[in-house]
Amino acid sequence: MTKYLIEGGHPLHGTIEISGAKNAAVPIIPAALLVDGVCRIENVPQISDVTLILQILRELGADVRTINRTTVEIDCSHIRNRQVPYELARKIRASYYLVGALLGRFGWAEVPLPGGCNLGGRPIDQHIKGFVAMGAEVDVRNGLIYAQVPGRGCLAGGQVYLDIVSVGATMNIMLAAVLAEGKTELSGAATEPEIMDLVCVLQKMGAIISVDVDRTFRIEGVKELQGYTHTSLTDRIEAASWASAALATHGDIFVKGATQPEMMTFLNVFRKIGGEFDITDKGIRFWHPGGDLKPVAIETDVHPGFMTDWQQPLVVALTQANGLSIVHETVYENRFGFTKPLVEMGATIQLYRECLGSLPCRFRQRNYKHSAVIFGPTPLTGRDIDVPDLRGGFSHLIAALAAKGPSNVQGISLIDRGYADFRGKLEALGADFD
Ligand code: UD1
C-alpha cells in the first residue's frame, strides 16, 4: 500500500506506542560485526531501514534470528563476505556504519555510498577523515567506498577533530576505534542520546570510552570485544512527530514510551507554543488545550539543541499558531523543500537565504534557503501530495490530517522507513483514511 486517501479535519485522539529509535538501532546492529558471539537487541523498530540493514548482515554471512516482533539476535562469527551488496546499501543512509564496523574488525571494507533522504549534499568527508587519522587508506570511486588498513591490518588510535559536528561520523569513527591499537581522541563530536546509547552498547561489549564536557570522546582500543544484550532507547523523533500531530489536528495523543530527558528541548518549545503535556512513567500525553497557539522562533542544532528532525512536523503545527514563527535550520542546507506542498494547501511560509537567528551557522552567505517564516493561522485544504522524504513525508501527512477535505498522499513507503506500524497507529488515533 503506497498511497493513502485521507479525509482530514478530525482531531487525532488515542494512545500509540512508539518504537525503538531508528537512529540508535542502525549503528547498534552493525556493532555486532565487531565480535564473534551473539548480540541481542530488544526494542528494535520494525521499519524498512532496519530490515535492510539486517538483510545486509545476512548477506555478509551473519546469523540473524528474529526472537519476537522487536527482538533480534545477531551472530557474526562466520562472516564470509565483506563486500556490502550495492542495491541494499544504496537504499539507506546508515549503511555507512558498515565501513566503521568492518574496518575496525577486519581492516578492510567495501561499501556503496549511502542513500537516504535528499536534504542537501550530505557528504561523508568527516567519517573518512577519522578513518584516515587511524591509519586507513580510503578511496571513493564508482559509487563505492574502499577502505583498508595497509600492512598490519589493524587500525591505530589517532587524533580526530570533526570540522562539522556530525552524528554519523561520531558513531562511525567510534565503531572503528574500539578495536584499534592505542587511544583515539575524537573531538568536536556530537553527543545525541542515540550516540550515548551506542556508547552503552560498546561499553557492554568491553570497550573503554569516556566523554568530556567539551564533546571529546576518548576511546582506548581493546584487543577483543564480546556479544551484548541491549534494549534500545525509544524514538524521540517519532514521539515529537505524534506530539506535533496532536497540536496540528487539535487532538490529544498519549505517546507511550516517550521519555522526558531526551525530549526536554522539544517540550519547552511545545509549551511555549501553547501545547499541553503530561509526563508519566509510561509516556507523555500531548494535547491541544483549545484557544490560540502562540508563534515561536526556533533554531535547529545538535544535541542538546532543537533537533533538525523535529522541525518538519512542528512547522505544520506552526501554520496554525497566531502570528509569525521563525525556523532557522543550521544542520542541513536544504531541509525546507517540504514546505512547498504546505503552501499549496494554504499555509503562508516564506523561505530566506539569510540566517534568521543568532546561532553560528555554516550556511551564512551561502545562498541556501535555510530559514523559514511561517505566518498563521491559515486554514489548510486537502490536495494530492507526493511524499518527498521521511520526515517531510510525515509532516505532509499531518497537514493532510489537519486539512479540510480529502488528500491523496502517494509514496507512503518512504514513511515506513522510519515509523513502525504507521497504518495501525493512524487507525488507533481515529484518523479517517483508506
Ligand atoms: C543523522 C540522523 C538524522 C539526523 C542527523 C542530524 C541517522 C541515521 N540519521 O544523520 O536523522 O537528521 O543525524 O541530527 O542517525 N556532514 C558533512 N560531512 C560529513 C558528515 C556530515 O558535511 O562527513 C554534514 C551533513 O551534510 C549535515 C550535517 O553535517 O549538513 C549533519 O550531518 P550528520 O549529523 O552527519 O547527519 P547524519 O549522521 O547523516
Describe the structure.
The chain is α+β, with helices and mostly antiparallel strands and 434 residues long. It has 14 helices and 22 strands. The protein has a 4-stranded mixed sheet, covered by helices on one side. The protein has a 4-stranded mixed sheet with strand order 4-5-3-13, covered by helices on one side. It has a 4-stranded mixed sheet with strand order 9-10-12-11, covered by helices on one side. α1 packs parallel to α2 (48-60) and α8 (236-248) packs parallel to α12. The longest helix has 14 residues, at 260-273. Uridine-diphosphate-N-acetylglucosamine (UD1) is lined by residues 23, 26, 93-94, 120-127, 164, 166-169, 308-309, 331-332.
Give a short synopsis of this structure.
The chain has helices spanning 22-31, 48-60, 86-89, 97-106, 125-133, 167-177, 193-205, 236-248, 260-273, 308-318, 339-344, 390-402, 413-416, 422-428; strands spanning 3-7, 13-17, 38-42, 63-68, 71-75, 108-112, 137-141, 144-148, 159-161, 183-187, 208-211, 217-220, 229-231, 252-256, 276-279, 283-287, 297-299, 323-328, 348-352, 371-376, 384-386, 406-410. 32% of the residues lie in helices and 24% in strands.
Give the averaged pLDDT, no decimals: 95
Biggest sheet descriptor? 4 strands, mixed
* Spatial strand arrangement across the major sheet: 2-14-16-15
User: Residue ranges: pLDDT <50 for 5 or more in a row?
Assistant: none
Residue share in β-strands: 15-25%
Number of strands: 22
What's the end-to-end separation, in Å?
Answer: 10 Å
Provide a count of the helices.
14
Helix content: 25-40%
| Class derived from helix and strand content | alpha+beta
Shape: globular
Any ligands, ions or cofactors bound here, and which?
uridine-diphosphate-N-acetylglucosamine
Gyration radius from CA atoms, angstroms: 22 Å
